[in-house]
UniProtKB/TrEMBL annotation:
SUPFAM superfamilies to which the protein is assigned, alphabetical: B-box zinc-binding domain, Concanavalin A-like lectins/glucanases, Fibronectin type III, RING/U-box
Single GO molecular function: zinc ion binding
Record text on subunit structure and interactions: Can form homodimers and homotrimers. In addition to lower-order dimerization, also exhibits a higher-order multimerization and both low- and high-order multimerizations are essential for its restriction activity. Interacts with BTBD1 and BTBD2. Interacts with PSMC4, PSMC5, PSMD7 and HSPA8/HSC70. Interacts (via B30.2/SPRY domain) with HSPA1A/B. Interacts with PSMC2, MAP3K7/TAK1, TAB2 and TAB3. Interacts with SQSTM1. Interacts with TRIM6 and TRIM34. Interacts with ULK1 (phosphorylated form), GABARAP, GABARAPL1, GABARAPL2, MAP1LC3A, MAP1LC3C and BECN1. Interacts with TUBB3 and TUBA4A.
UniProt feature, compositional bias: Basic and acidic residues: 617-626
Span of domain B30.2/SPRY: 500-734
GO BP annotation list: anterograde synaptic vesicle transport; autophagy; axonogenesis; defense response to virus; innate immune response; microtubule bundle formation; neuron migration; protein ubiquitination
Top-level taxon of the source organism: Eukaryota
Domain B box-type stretches: 209-250
Name of the protein in question: Tripartite motif-containing protein 46
Family from the record: Belongs to the TRIM/RBCC family.
Higher taxonomy: Eukaryota, Metazoa, Chordata, Craniata, Vertebrata
Species per Swiss-Prot/TrEMBL record: Cebus imitator
Gene: TRIM46
One Gene Ontology cellular component annotation held by this UniProt entry: cytoskeleton
């Protein structure tokens, strides 16, 4: 009872999955759209009609609806009709066959019919045949029928052909598309007739075809096209439409999809606690969203009110300034008016001057007229050079609010920084990993960054990938200290500001060196001519100048010449373990040899060595990428890679290691382009030295080496050339990020 009750409850809870998105009722003859969503056939016809498509609502099942198959549309009086004759029953049962209602023969169809899917809100292409090219979802119909039976009260299916009162149906017939009791089934399927071969089914309210039929050829579907993701029949399989497609039998597709669905469903059912926990988290997120949204509204309202208060205060101060300016000007103009009125005949200053002129006493006149004359002179000058005492214009009080209006118009919420762009030209891995990035031009600024990385060459752990993280990295670069050698790291960055974290940058993959990095400086005391070699002050770069010997060689090319071989050694020697270093060779170099050799042999060969004859002189007499084939089993004391004119020479005596170069790697006796940086990896215990592309860490060459004593890095020059050792990343004044101190991030 418990299992049955749970099944009934689950059937009742899935009602929302059985509702058509158009009519919001239970599916009736649902069709599968190309976007995998479902819609009732009648609803699909109505939608196409609203879109202006007429005559494209063909029944994809090739079996149109009959009154017996949809009891909800039948008249209630149908079950109380008198029993018809067998021949009339045949006509009634077959009345739905033939030309579909609304289908016009020979009608012109649009080239492409688009259907607006109500579920995904997208337009899906139905092709030229419209709904007639779609499959019915018979599985969904069966689920809907089982759901109706589980939730119906007294849901017994009655015989459709009994006299009133009808008996409970015990059989159904797909061919007749009707339900029968035992007696009626025997009556309408007499022995010896073709109907006797009809196979009875369980009574049902909806009759469906026995299987899916191809809408194009009316044949049973037998295969599944993985390319088109569509069921096809035998005729479809051989047609040009599916030529070259990956087609499998329906049984294989059925088993594969069933296994995937079962596995996914098992995982979901086995993690119900997780689902419930996530539901609680989502409900808490909903509550937090409501509270945060209300707080955000209040903050925005408060800020806008603050802007309004500032504007109101500014408005009052500006109006006060205009008022004061206006009063000052009015006072000055009023005073000027009074002065001019005093110049009128018989009033003011003019009247007083006229009375003074009547004075006959000369001393008294002189005394009074002196002051009066000054006033009259000023008045005369003011009259001759009349100008209002104040301007009536207030243009200087106009406001230019264009910038402020633009700012207010562009006033918007804060945006998080956009995804940073990692500078792949400056990002590299050496003794440490140097990561450099920048923000896009129009990105909001970032207060700080988060750097995340992980190794990709470690066994995958169950669950999401685990990243190591460093928070609050200032600047646009970071150092990752102590990376594992011979590993591949994937790194990403994202910025943060007041609006929160932005999007992650694109992942960048970096290969770390195959061995610990060897730090050394150049030592020009052995075999180096100061006239031809120039070593930088930091002892990490050296340049060879051809000088006079090479010029004389060009003049005596036919008679013989002397070419100088200049050698620069590293100031350290390797006596154990594995070591790696990298350098850059100038592509314009004439001939440069980069490699390693026994310290004793190098000093013996080049200490105070004079110029040697022949431009093909080999300074090492050992193993070289351009040397002759080795004829002895003893490992050579030297191993050099020959570089010249932007190319690397892999001579016939050099053995290419497929473990480094791969199947498509360089072979002996050829040249390959010079990479930006060369890497040298020395395995002292194994007596092997490997030359690599220091950018991609692609192997170029692997050679044996005599490691019976200390081994030194060496660089040989014939003619002009330059070599630059790669500086350790740790010497750069950048922010350091310690890998061991990173917190785990799930």
């Amino acid at each position: 009872m418990g299992a049955k009750g749970n099944g009934l409850t689950s059937m009742k809870n899935m009602e929302k999955e059985l509702l058509c998105p158009v009519c919001q009722e239970m599916y009736k003859q649902p069709l599968v759209l190309p976007c995998t969503h479902n819609v009732c056939q009648a609803c699909a016809r109505e939608v196409l009609g609203q879109q202006g498509y007429i005559g494209h609502g063909g029944d994809p099942s090739s079996e149109p609806t009959s009154p017996a198959s949809t009891p909800s549309t039948r008249s209630p009086r149908l079950s109380r009709r008198t029993l018809p004759k067998p021949d009339r029953l045949d006509r009634l049962l077959k009345s739905g066959f033939g030309t579909y209602p609304g289908r016009k023969r020979g009608a012109l169809h649009p080239q492409v019919i688009m259907f607006p899917c109500p579920a995904c809100q997208g337009d899906v292409e139905l092709g030229e045949r419209g709904l007639a090219g779609l499959f019915r979802n018979l599985t969904l119909e069966r689920v809907v029928e089982r759901y109706r039976q589980s939730v119906s009260v007294g849901g017994a299916i009655l015989c459709q052909l009994c006299k009133p009162p009808p008996l409970e149906a015990t059989k159904g017939c797909t061919e007749c598309r009707a339900t029968f009791c035992n007696e009626c089934f025997k009556l309408f399927h007499p022995w010896g007739t073709q109907k006797a071969q009809h196979e009875p089914t369980l009574p049902t309210l909806s009759f469906r075809p026995k299987g899916l039929m191809c809408p194009d050829h009316k044949e049973e579907v037998t295969h599944y096209c993985k390319t088109c993701q569509r069921l096809v029949c035998q005729l479809c399989r051989v047609r040009r439409t599916h030529s070259g497609h990956k087609i499998t039998p329906v049984l294989s597709a059925y088993q594969a999809l069933k296994d995937k669905l079962t596995k996914s469903l098992t995982y979901i059912l086995g993690n119900q606690d997780t689902v419930q926990t996530q539901i609680c988290e989502l409900e808490e997120a909903v509550r937090h969203t409501e509270v945060s949204g209300q707080q955000a509204k209040e903050e925005v309202s408060q800020l806008v009110r603050g802007l309004g208060a500032v504007l109101e205060e500014k408005r009052a101060s500006l109006l006060q300034a205009i008022e004061e300016c206006q009063q000052e000007r009015l006072a000055r103009l009023s005073a000027q008016i009074q002065e001019h009125r005093s110049l009128l005949d018989g009033s003011g200053l003019v009247g007083y001057a006229q009375e003074v002129l009547k004075e006959t006493d000369q001393p008294c006149f002189v005394q009074a007229a002196k002051q009066l004359h000054n006033r009259i002179a000023r008045a005369t000058e003011a009259l001759q050079t009349f100008r209002p005492a104040a301007s009536s214009s207030f243009r200087h009080c106009q406001l230019d609010v264009g910038r402020e209006m633009k700012l207010l118009t562009e006033l918007n919420f804060l945006r998080a920084p956009e995804a940073p762009v990692i500078d792949t030209q400056r990002t590299f891995a050496y003794d440490q990993i140097f990561l450099c990035w920048r923000l896009p031009p129009h990105s909001p600024p970032a207060w700080h960054y988060t750097v995340e990385f992980r190794r990709t060459d470690v066994p995958a752990q169950p669950g999401p990938a685990r990243w190591q993280r460093r928070e609050e990295v200032r600047g646009t670069s970071a150092l990752l200290e102590n990376p594992d050698t011979g590993s591949v790291y994937v790194l990403r960055v994202r910025g943060c500001n007041k609006a929160g974290y932005g999007e992650y940058s694109e992942d960048v993959h970096l290969h770390t060196p195959p061995a610990p990095v060897l730090h050394f400086f150049l030592d020009g005391r052995w075999g180096a001519s100061r006239e031809r070699l120039a070593i930088s002050k930091d002892q990490r770069a050296v340049r060879s100048v051809p000088g006079l010997p090479l010029l004389l060689a060009a003049d005596r090319l036919l008679t013989g010449c002397h070419l100088s071989v200049d050698v620069v050694l590293g100031d350290v020697a390797v006596t154990q373990g594995r070591s790696y270093w990298a350098c850059a060779v100038d592509p314009a170099s004439y001939l440069v040899k980069v490699g390693v050799g026994l310290e004793s042999k190098l000093q013996e060969s080049f200490q105070g060595a004079p110029d040697v004859i022949s431009p093909r002189y080999d300074p090492d007499s050992g193993h070289d990428s351009g040397a002759e084939d080795a004829t002895v089993e003893a490992s050579p004391p030297f191993a050099f890679l020959t570089i010249g004119m932007g190319k690397i020479l892999l001579g016939s005596g050099a053995s290419s290691n497929t473990g480094l170069t791969g199947r498509d790697g360089p072979t002996a006796g050829c040249t390959v382009p010079l990479p930006p940086r060369l890497g040298i990896c020395l395995d002292y215990e194994r007596g092997r030295v490997s030359f690599l592309d220091a950018v991609s860490f692609r192997g170029l060459l692997e050679c044996p080496l005599d490691c019976s004593g200390p081994v030194c890095p060496a660089f040989c020059f014939i003619g002009g050339g330059a070599v630059q050792l790669q500086e350790p990343v740790g010497t750069k004044p950048e922010r350091k990020v310690t890998i061991g101190g990173f917190a785990k991030l799930d």
